[in-house]
Write a structure and sequence with these properties.
The chain has helices at 14-28, 53-61, 75-80, 89-103, 136-160; strands at 2-8, 35-41, 83-86, 112-114. Helix content is 42%, strand content 12%. The longest helix is centred in the last third of the chain and has 25 residues, at 136-160.
Length: 168
């Protein structure tokens, strides 16, 4: 089983929608027995809370139900997940620093990377923008970014790990 963790700051906007869209893509390809995912935040502001209501509303518009409860990234996550996919540079630095501090080495580019490293429309922008202080339409932009980035990420993981759908 390949385990993927999506990380943002508070775990109530970007990483929950990234987790939900990725899970949906995995399901559509029939790979639930091969790939799993979760999400976390680098800060503990929203531990135990459901995602932001605007994130929930936007997800529902796309047929996704968000039930994830906010949690903070833990040291145990660094070993439990094969890939840690971060939404922006500041949180990437925080995860990288935690990894270095606890593992005494820098994580590989295979282990820790930005989600938009896989965005076919990145146009040089490497971060998923944080919609928290923005209006509802901005949440749709974030959804579109994570959806297309996750499609490419899933293709990458299938190829990298030579994942083959189990015949039923």
């Amino acid at each position: 089983m390949i385990n993927v963790l999506f990380v943002c700051l508070g775990n109530i906007c970007r990483s929950p929608i990234a987790e939900a869209t990725f899970r949906e893509l995995v399901k559509k390809r029939g790979l639930q027995d091969k790939i799993s995912c979760d999400s976390a935040g680098t800060a503990g502001y929203h531990i135990g809370q459901l995602p932001d209501q605007r994130t929930i509303k936007n997800a529902e518009k796309h047929g996704l139900k968000l039930t994830h409860r906010g949690r903070k990234l833990s040291v145990a996550d660094l070993d439990a997940f094969d890939h840690i996919v971060v939404m922006d540079e500041a949180n990437f630095k925080d995860v990288n620093d935690l990894y270095y501090k606890t593992k005494h080495k820098t994580p590989s580019a295979d282990k820790l990377f930005l989600l938009r490293d896989h965005d076919p429309e990145t146009r040089g922008i490497k971060e998923v923008p944080d919609p928290y202080y923005e209006s509802e339409p901005f949440f749709e932009d974030v959804y579109q970014i994570v959806w297309r980035s996750n499609e490419a990420l899933l293709d990458y993981l299938i190829e990298k790990h030579q994942i083959v759908k189990t015949e039923e």
